[in-house]
Fold this sequence. Notes:
Shape of chain B: globular
Largest sheet of chain B: 9 strands, mixed
CATH class of chain B: Alpha Beta
Largest interface: A-B, 115 and 107 residues
Strand order of the largest sheet of chain B: 11-10-9-12-8-1-6-7-13
CATH superfamily of chain B: HUPs
CATH topology of chain B: Rossmann fold
CATH topology of the largest domain in chain A: Rossmann fold
Number of helices of chain B: 6
Largest sheet of chain A: 7 strands, parallel
CATH class of the largest domain in chain A: Alpha Beta
Helix content of chain B: 25-40%
Number of domains of chain B: 1
Number of helices of chain A: 10
Shape of chain A: flat
Distance between the termini of chain A: 81 Å
Strand content of chain A: 25-35%
Oligomer: heterodimer
Strand content of chain B: 25-35%
Number of strands of chain A: 22
Strand order of the largest sheet of chain A: 11-15-10-5-8-9-16
Radius of gyration of chain A: 25 Å
Amino acid sequence: xxxxxxxxxxxxxxxxxMKLCPFGAMEWDNEYLTINAACKMCQICVKKGPEGVFTxxxxxxxxxxxxxxxxxxxxxxxxxEGDIHPVTLELVGKAKEMAxxxxxxxxxxxxxxxxxxxxxxxxxxxxxxxxVYDDPELKHFRIEPYTAVMEDFINKIKPTIVLVGAxxxxxxxxxxxxxxxxxxxxxxxxxxxxxxxxxxxxxxxxFGGNIMAHIYTPxxxxxxxxxxxxxxxxxxxxCEAKGKVTVCDIAKEKLASGIKVLEVRMKxxxxxxxxxxxxxxxxxxVKKAEDLEMVKQLADKLGGMVGVTRPLIEAGLxxxxxxxxxxxxxxxxxxxxxxxxxxxxxFVAGMDKSDYIVAINTDENAPIFNVAxxxxxxxxxxxxxxxxxxxxxxxxxxxxxxxx
Amino acid sequence: xxxxxxxxxxxxxxxVEVDPETGVLKREGIDSxxxxxxxxALETAMRIKEQNGAKVSVVxxxxxxASVIIEEAFMMGADEGILLSDRKFAGADVLATxxxxxxxxxxxxxxxxxxxxxxxxxxxxxxxxxEVAEFLGIPHIANVKKVxxxxxxxxxxxxxxxxxxxxxxxxxxxxxxxEKDVGQPRLPSFxxxxxxxxxKIPILSLxxxxxxxxxxxGLNGSPTRVLRIFSPEANTDRETWRGSSDELSQKLARKxxxxxxx
Lengths: 404, 262
């Protein structure tokens, strides 16, 4: 058992010590300073506290696994009726890069019905081997058969890393498979890299705050990570497909499910914010529908879409599909203009890969300015109406010119 | 019918920063609340209870002070509630958390439906629900938008799948995670608030679980480790503009033109 031990004889100012803990996990009963169940074992008290007051005790280490038995980096192919979701290719690009670094092969695992032809297309990205499970039972995503296929694949191939797109399917499937193998899974990674010993370096915002964490899985394999669409870039097509497609069989009884899909309706095609090239974001400074309308006007002028931050969704001002951030969508437009957005990390992680970031905020110290290319210190409610006028004037001038 | 709703206490604010000098996390105001998504999970359970009759229990894992969100659930109409709390659970990652909750659920009985919120606002991972289902060996459907029908042996739900909406029927026992579309959560009732006063909330710890192996809980049972935490790097090639709103708007209009966005 690992635990934080408090050396009570060294506790001189309990109030000061309690401030060390970001999770409020210390209690003082006027005699003893104790750690309660809110402790996250972040060990900040050990590192930052006065020497010797806090120590971390670990009873026994689990025996080390043989990492050499696990080889290769696998990508789950996310698709709808054979249409491959672009996040898959973005992950293939990352898998390829990491596989080259540790000199491992990289694979795709592709399950569904009538998908063999599509599997060949994937080879153009330089994948070493695409494993295909083609069965009528896999037509719709149902959790038990899909998990069974992943289990079969992992047992057969023993990949050291499995990357899954953080789509509706991926976010349901990856945790299920990770739990089956009792291994680690890190959701919504924003940076991935691999160490020589095949440990996957996973970086993501953590503890719900303005903090990034480097997370790794030191003694379990495979290592699972999910990554959202538009976080990495898709690779170029290799001229020469050198890999192969392997069709795998799985016993029918493993594909049994307690779920019956009764109907699949295509959603009305709405342009999703992930595909917008220009986004104007309304932040928590926007408190009324008419203010949001002003932001929308600016977005329209730029041929873009409006995005919002979480407070606006919680206030019921906008469609949740327009939310940017970890609890919403990740976007990578050519231009993003944030208006009255403070810049909580859960938001920033959903947009910081955009080409041009313009931020308007009255607070010079707003964290959004840390990622902005153009940090505009000012009041959005004054700047935006004037900007709209300016843009109109320029448009009119251009129109007059072209008429002449 | 028995329904269990999994709920979590989360920080009331997401304003956490690293102190640049000491490297210590700063969390302003440690006020906490029930994870907003869990309110929708509770609402889903209450609606099933009203229409089909059911016993609704809530389970939470956290420090002793997390019992306040269980009281809150009582005020919304939950019948029973327990807290899973033990120092041995400290430092749990997704896997150890899901295992702890699944053990707590096993200790509680055999629910027909387990309902979770889609995700929490502090971790944002949306992984615990599916992992709990795996540890219980039951099917799950994530991102449920609507409960269509509740039958004796199965539930029919509508799920959100990005490009499609699917309607699926799932046998009990099963787990669903729900989206906000399921319906506006009710407010706590005054009558229930009075009844909740002084109600004792049972706490289960490791010794109450079927599996008492300490290696599977807390930091020991967590395959992932946080190597380090750090503040995001600031962008170095940044231009800061100050001035009157006239100047700033003109400057921005010119810049947008220069970058060919207009």
